[in-house]
Predict the 3D structure of the following.
Amino acid sequence: MEIQWPLLIFSVLLGITGGIYVFLGAGELKGRFKDVRFVGALVALACLAVGGCVSVLHMGHPERATHLLGNLGSGLAKELLIVAIMGIVAIVYVVLSKKDYPGARKIVGVIAALLGLALPVVAGMSYLIAARPAWDSAALPLMYLGAGLATGALLMCGLVMLRGNAEEDGGFALRIALAAVIIMVVTSVAYIVWIAVAPYQAPSRSIERLLAGDLAVMFWLGVVVVGLVAPTALTALACVKATKGDADTGLADPKKLATFMFAAFACSAVGAVCLRVIMYGVGTSVEQFIYH
């Protein structure tokens, strides 16, 4: 299937937004990340806004986006609805992150985190089409969720190390980032396994295309090496180095750890894009579902 770049970019940005708010929500529950919550919330809001605009541009006539109100059951309508709700909550959280209302901020932060979990899942569920077997599995929205958690957490962990209180919050941020990366690896592998075992196998959607066919370079280099192995290694390395800091701070050089985290974020984002390109590549239809 032809790659739908606007929707691909939309889903990646939506995942980053969700991952950031899950990270910040965890911080609200623990009373952490006060030095970076405003910047993080602003970045998440920007990703959400850009993603929403790109999604609308996917339509042949963007000015007709309001017609979706008459078909709220469609996947695109659900996506835009949750983006709108997330946008309202995100704006409120951005405002509260600059105010001294800890109780209200915690409530809104937790709501934002829950919506952050839902964002990539809703985006992925719009692809669950029986006529496209390589898409028709819960593994696809879960893959979207895993990538979003990792990219958002890695980006925020880098911000904590660079602009936050790394001495107090760095260890907690690294633990969140490592957990998110592990989830990303598990969900990505689960989706790859689904491609291999999906019903109605055909050459166009076969796992052989990934392992040794025309998608092999993108799979092995873009997904496996850059998208999964590199973020895992960089995050694990940062966790190890963080335990070998000097006697005064108890933490390694925060700027160096931030470099590891930003590099891991970039790699995970590249991997997320590559896996989505592969997803489109194997998303061919079962002919008898169309013509009979």
About this structure: The chain has one domain: 5-291. Residues 211 and 219 are 7 Å apart (CA to CA).
